[in-house]
């Protein structure tokens, strides 16, 4: 996919050409959703993930240390075999400075995502979920 000209939403859009700069070299922790537009489970997760992105953006600690991002896995190539997606959706957490993803296996809710991020984060983050 082409690099987006505007990418200022709460959830950043990553494409194959920007994976390294936006995920591996971000200088922050990164939560990355790899999805496919035709995937039913992805469509169900999308509004939850977008809401989580907004909650993280509203949190002072999370907005300073976390990037919430998504990538169309059907339209973009991942740069290395290490990042093999075996099913959609896949949510990975990349600790700041690490190129090894931690796979999210929890409940697909804003609370589940917040709990996962708080457990994995390089620095303490507070994300308030109603």
Automatic annotation (TrEMBL):
User: Which reaction does this chain catalyze?
Assistant: Catalyzes the rearrangement of -S-S- bonds in proteins
Question: Has the keyword Metal-binding been applied to this entry?
Answer: no
GO:BP terms for this protein? protein folding; response to endoplasmic reticulum stress
Q: What is its main location?
A: endoplasmic reticulum
Q: Which residues form the Thioredoxin domain?
A: 1-122
- Which keywords label this protein? Disulfide bond, Endoplasmic reticulum, Isomerase, Redox-active center, Repeat, Signal
Location in the cell reads: Endoplasmic reticulum lumen
Q: What class of enzyme is it?
A: isomerase
Name the PANTHER family for this protein.
PROTEIN DISULFIDE ISOMERASE, PROTEIN DISULFIDE-ISOMERASE A3
Report the protein name in the record.
protein disulfide-isomerase
């Amino acid at each position: 996919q082409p690099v987006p000209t505007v990418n200022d939403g709460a959830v950043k859009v990553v494409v194959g050409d920007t994976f390294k700069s936006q995920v591996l070299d971000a200088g922050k922790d990164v939560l990355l959703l790899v999805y496919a537009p035709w995937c039913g489970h992805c469509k169900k997760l999308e509004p939850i993930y977008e809401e989580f992105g907004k909650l993280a953006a509203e949190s002072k600690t999370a907005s300073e240390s976390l990037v919430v991002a998504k990538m169309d896995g059907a339209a973009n190539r991942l740069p290395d075999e290490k990042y093999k997606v075996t099913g959609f959706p896949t949510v990975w957490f990349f600790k700041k400075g690490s190129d090894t993803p931690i796979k999210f296996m929890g409940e697909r809710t804003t609370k589940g995502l917040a709990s996962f991020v708080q457990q994995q984060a390089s620095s303490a983050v507070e994300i308030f979920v109603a």
